[in-house]
Amino acid sequence: MKDSISLTSEFVELYQEIRICEACLLHTTRKNAVPGEGPQDAQVMFIGEAPGLNEDREGRPFVGRSGSFLEELLAAAGLKRSEVYICNVLKCRPPDNRDPLPAEIDSCSDFISRQIQLIDPFVVVTLGRHSMRRFFPDATISRVHGQPKTVEGRLIVPMYHPAAALHRGNLKQTIIDDFSLLPGFIDRVRSLRRGEEVLGNSKTSSPRQLDLFED
Ligand code: URA
Description:
By secondary structure, this protein is of the alpha/beta class. The chain has ten helices and five strands, in the order αβααβαβααββαααα. The chain binds uracil.
């Protein structure tokens, strides 16, 4: 695993922008914006839906029950929370935890793009439908969960939201099984990027190589 936990000034600026953002009405009801957390050189990035009550209070993602379950899932996959990056499609809590509105998702979209660009993770895991739609606009989560696709040299893996598994017990084993695939996905991208280094190519300038795991 990469080991640095320091954030570059670009990242610090991004977090500041998110904390004072007034692009949609959610800023009027938030206590705290929730930019995301984790090392800037994380190999895996999780994108959830939106902060809930506890996240809004603390300004940190996934600190409630879903967060505890996410940490269990990570541990089962041999990963620690401190080594992955966690954020949400929306940076501010929707009142009463209602579903994000399309305009709110649009307002936050550039923040996610910048987070992906700055972290450059091997694997992006989308948690839940709203996060999945960014990369799989027409997909149904029950059909595609756990099946990665390659976008710009990284694997995007749609998964159920941990809260869904907490509410629907029959999904628990499914999400555990999907998380167990993560180490293999990380290795796949690591090998590919190493191969590119050996060939003297930059991370993303080798479309032929990327085709090797295009689904
Ligand atoms: N659910 C999410 O999608 N994100 C959080 O931060 C907490 C719960």
